[in-house]
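fyi for ur records
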Amino acid sequence: MASCSANRSIVVQQKLGPVVCRHYNGADATLLQVTDNYFPSGWLPFKSDVRRYGSSLAEFLAFKYNIPLHVFAYDIKNHELNEFSLTGRGGVSIYYPSCIAIYNKQKLDAKILEIGAITQRIPTTLSYGCGKTDYAVELPGYILGGRNSAYTAWDSGDTAATWYGENCGHAGRIDFSQTSNLRARPCSGRFFSDTQNNASPEQAAAFVEEQVRLAVESNGFYLNFMHWHDMSRRNNAAHGVPLMSLLFESMAKGADNARIAKADYNQAVEYLYLKESIEYLSLKKIRRTAFLDIRLNKFREIDYTVINTPLTIRINKEKTRQLNYKKIIPGGQIRSIRQDEKYLYLNISIDMTKDEIRIPFTLSSGKKVHPSAWAMPVLTFDEASHKVYSSIPVKFVLFRRGIMAPEYAVELIDRTYIPANSFILPATEKDYRYFAGAITPEGESLVIELSFGNQGQTLQ
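which gave:
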């Protein structure tokens, strides 16, 4: 048993059998909907048209369909991007304005610090403005990945590029053994662009659904790009916002019941480099001490030390009875532990300055009940107390839409930043419908409508 690693073989001690997971948190595939730049709801140039709803609607749909988001941002227009990042449904990295500016490392470094300050995480990826990638070879080693403007069109006859390591996803004509192709990677698709190139919205959505399904079946990495402020080049009255729900719905249909990694673009790229660097992995027990031995092969020309995403390994519980897995607890380099019926999933911090690592397990004195992997909250609404309750700790987001407003006219009016089991609603108005979103620390999300007089129902 081995991970989907690029031309690397992992030596596994069969007796205890740890396995590097193909995707973060032991997922089946990684899916992302991404955009360039985050325009707040009060952005003056958009106040008179539907684009003012773009950012709030994207987050609403991402919560509803449980799909991660990512924003490539050039600047911080107000506090809303910070709030978006802290909620956890989406990540942020750099949009380099190639359309109007020549590449300059000092400018890039300033943007890295600016984005890192608001997200509390140094970004390791970027997107190339206007698809200009001529400066890719000049990027510093701590830029691990990049998104260019290329993509697989609906009428191309091709399968989307979804490569995520050896035997994971589809590479097509792209040689991903060349690190340059990871640092200037095409998108798997561009939904709105397809609608502007002779596809009906329904045809574009069907293509998304099909390509997501293929990505999931092959354990790949699917990336769909759409500006949340998209507007037709041919007809200024044609905006992307009213079509956004089709994009998210089609991604969810393609994913079906598969486990999707809740990772942003920084994390997805970091995890790829991390998993393919694991040359040897063994779980051993000597007397009463259990530990992991790991050997790394950092064969790509990047700065591996900036990787902050943990490695996910899984352990077959049936094969580790002698280890007494129920006593393993988080601690040291083991950030978190989750389980399902068959496996224990450990997220482990890897010190990428080293080539060989030994990670001891911390054991409790008694049995430890590990949380369930992929646990979804159950939300209920109590009108009397004006509270939304969750079965497990979550962060909450509150949306609303006018009763007579179109479906896309969603406003984001409140959010929390510390996981809790309840949320007190602010004052509500009778001319609006309200929706509560919730997201777990592991990134699983949903939305319910707050039906006053009835219990809220999960939105499907």
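Residues 1-15 have pLDDT under 50 and may be disordered. thats all i got for now
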